[in-house]
Design a protein that fits this description.
Layout (H helix, E strand, L loop, with lengths): L1 E5 L8 H11 L6 E5 L1 H10 L4 H10 L2 H5 L10 H11 L10 E8 L4 E5 L4 H8 L9 E3 L2 E5 L8 H6 L4 E5 L14 H23 L4 E3 L14 H13 L18
Parallel strand pairs: 1-2, 1-7, 2-3, 7-8
Antiparallel strand pairs: 3-4, 3-6, 5-6
Helix pairs in contact: 1-3, 1-9, 2-6, 5-6
Length: 259
Amino acid sequence: MRGLVLSGGGARGLAHIGVLEVLEAQGFEAQVVAGTSMGGVIGALYASGKGPAEILEIARSTPWLRLLDLVPRPGLISQRGLRDFLARYLPPYFEELKRRLVVTAVDLEAGKLTYFTQGDLPGAVLASVAYPGLVAPVVYQGRTYVDGGVLDNLPVDAARFMQAHYVLAVDVTPEMRRPGVPRSTIGQVRRAIDIMQNHLTAARRSLYPPDLYIRPELPGVGLEQFARLEEIVEAGRRAASQVRLLGATSSGLGLPGLP
């Protein structure tokens, strides 16, 4: 069983769309999708049966910054726009998906990673995108959750949990190459989270290595830069085209190591 893992990364996660385009063209099809944060959003759309072209049109037609409704209060992003978006484009329950899906979030009280695989789909995805300091924590099934990327921004382990024997992972975790220190408090908090995610992702990748790893080059692309959609998607296409997928089919021919 093949698994596809999509990391979090805000606007950077739109690169997953370009990767999906290339995978589809090369005949790679995943039976299991695992995602967190923006990877959870794109992964849920894909698992619902939407193809890369349809997901791209959704991305193009979505006024992301208005959807995020930036306001000066704790939890800087209103959940209302996100809830409406998820309810519009996703089925209400995991059980209605075309592919098996697992999305991750962090239980804020227990301090543990949680896998969501059944029940309320939009609610689970919303919990997965509750980025600390930007989106207020989400109460879901009686517990309070924040973004799954806090502990596991590339949930290969979640795909293995879902019995995926071959895992292709796409990582858009922010790079550590940006010079200087942000001046704003929010910028400094986000920078600290980026550092944490980068190191945790590297550590967890060594513990749970994917069979194939794709890392789109997105230098200088911030979490909120949705206006760079076309550039970001193209980076995903380019990264996927550079790995050895040529000749891959749904039967696995041409993809080394594919069961």
